[in-house]
Amino acid sequence: MRQPPRPKRSSSASSPRSHRTAAAGVQKPATPPEELEADGHGDGSKPPTPARTATPRPAKKKFSLQRTTSRESTGATPDAPSSRGREVSRPAVSRALDGPVGAADAADLLGSHENDVSTGFVERLDERRRARRRLRGTRLAVLAGGLLAVILVAWIVLFSPLLALKSDQIAVEGATESLSADQVKAVIAPYVGTPLTRLNTGTVESAVAALPLAKDVSVHFDWPDGLTVQMSVRTPALRESTGSGEQVVDDQGAVLPTDGTVPDGLPLVSLPQDSAARTRAAGQAATVWASLSEELRGQVVSMAGDGDQMTLTLKDNRTVKWGSEEDSDLKAQVLGVLLAQRPAQVYDVSVPSRPVTS
Fold this sequence. Notes:
The strands form 3 sheets. The protein has an 8-stranded mixed β-sheet with strand order 7-6-8-9-10-11-12-13, with helices on one face. The protein has a 3-stranded mixed β-sheet with strand order 3-5-4. It is an alpha/beta fold. Helix 11 links the parallel strand 11 (319-323) and strand 12 (346-348). 37% of the residues lie in helices and 17% in strands.
């Protein structure tokens, strides 16, 4: 069966087959006229094209390249990575480049840079993790050491016997026969063994001031394990009349213990019960009594004060309005002159420059 004739192709058009044939260096020979007549195509029609035979292409060469890392070739340490990460053998490259090289072969030939970068990145991450762990461990160690140091210092300061009060390190200043140092130490004995950092000086002062004869008490520490007590001893200054008798008080109105007897030479006073007024009145009475001469003292029967004004009662029911304790020495002199020159029942020396009698 005859095939219809194919249209004649232009000589300028070329097919990929012709390019492949030209690239392979094969030329197609022209068909002689005799063969055309023998085939029965003398009418000028083109015979059917014979079946094409594919020209075999040469197989791609697979290169097995020996790659060495920069560490192995140069002997570098792991901490100094190379710029490319891997190094390719030069003879293998030169042999591989004798023919055309595809993209996959080029990757095998030159090596994958991404793998080297990834390997270096992972190593850096591991190193940073190790650095963080070391830093965290160092911080924890410093924190634990600081905490232990604080605990040790706190124990030494608050609980250690190094700072504890010792009985033989207690000193007492101002003690007398009526109030001895042993009596004071006996009051402080409960605090022996307590660290000074936990001991309050005010507490010790209150304990010592509770003694009837102790006044003006002050306490200070003698580091590391002692303390000193400074005080003055109350002395009898006045006699105060009570419903059941008399009691001895000092110049601050404090009642002093006695053995039942009252010392001689003390004036009899009447003091208010209010603590503040009592303290002022007792101080005024002691000052006035100290300013009087022995002759005047012999005429005084009693004194009374309210914290502001003092009044003296003399023999023969005479009264002296003394006023405050100011200018007591001058008032005592004026009173002596008035008693000698102006007999009267009332003497007012509250203003010594202008005394009044009545």
